[in-house]
Write a structure and sequence with these properties.
about 290 residues, alpha+beta, Endonuclease, Chain A, 13 strands
């Protein structure tokens, strides 16, 4: 267990707030739990900003800071008292559950991995609480049990079944989720992975769908042998991608933090990205129309 949590008896649930209809944590609170400086955490987000769409991470506005501070004595947000006020570049980041899952994979820290389990459990606990109390449309947001009225609670906190973080040696669960994602498609699966190889093809040979593999390191001998026996995969050589993606029916996008041949060997996450602009840009980069 993290020493910060033990020594200060911190309840992570009290660090979770409802802002813009979603559950979030302040980057400063996440940094405290991970035992890193807030500046280091924010720099990690900025350096990898393409991995943090607005559904994963966003900056608070001045009005949101005022509202959050007024409704909770737990929140202490420093505002500059000089003539410059507090410029937007100093406004704090907040992270959703998916953003924290992504962040834990970027921070090279054993503590981040361990604490992430506690954070995800806290999000799950809060979602269950919200679901059980939607009839009164009221929730508790901190240890003082202050009541707030929420709109669209059920939609905002519905669990995403096909987004998950996996830890070391969870090989079966990782491949099981991958197959569940494949089964969501009706016609076509696009897989982007520069390290696509035999391990992936062994799975795909039994998938009765049209499949496109996009990779910059396709083994030509392996490709010819596969195509001589199976005809469900088309290969596209493309060197534009670093991350791994799955696209279902050119309409639904998933991002995977690990190459498909490494699933379950180390900590990583698979998550659904609902940003249609990102999806369209990825398809355009591949040279495929939606």
């Amino acid at each position: 267990m993290n020493e910060v949590i033990e020594k200060e008896a911190i309840h992570i649930e009290n660090m979770i707030y409802e802002i813009r209809g979603v559950q979030v944590m302040l980057s400063s609170d996440v940094a405290k739990l991970y035992q890193v400086e807030t500046k280091v955490l924010n720099q990690t987000i900025k350096r990898n900003i393409n991995r943090f769409p607005s559904s994963f991470c966003f900056q608070l506005t001045n009005d949101e800071i005022d509202e959050l501070s007024s409704r909770s004595q737990i929140v202490t947000l420093n505002k500059s008292n000089n003539s410059r006020g507090y410029n937007i570049k100093y406004l704090p980041y907040v992270l959703t559950e998916q953003g924290i899952m992504m962040l834990s994979g970027l921070l090279k820290s054993d503590i981040a991995v361990k604490v992430n389990i506690e954070i995800i459990n806290a999000f799950v606990k809060m979602r269950k609480y919200f679901a059980n109390n939607t009839s009164n449309n009221e929730i508790l947001v901190n240890h003082e049990k202050r009541l707030l009225v929420l709109e669209n609670t059920l939609d905002s906190f519905k669990e995403k079944e096909l987004s998950k973080i996996f830890f070391e040696k969870e090989l079966y669960d990782a491949y099981s989720l991958l197959l569940d994602i494949f089964n969501k498609t009706s016609e076509e699966i696009i897989i982007i992975d520069n390290y696509a190889g035999k391990e992936l093809l062994d799975i795909l040979k039994n998938v009765n769908k049209k499949i496109i593999i996009v990779s910059s390191n396709i083994n030509e001998i392996l490709k010819k042998k596969y195509e001589s026996q199976y005809n469900n995969v088309r290969f596209i050589n493309n060197n534009s991608f670093h991350d791994r993606f799955i696209i279902l029916d050119r309409n639904k996008l998933y991002s995977c933090g690990a190459s498909f041949k490494e699933l379950g060997k180390r900590c990583f996450c698979i998550y659904e990205n609902n940003d249609k602009d990102y999806l369209q840009r990825i398809l355009k980069t591949i040279g495929i129309s939606r």
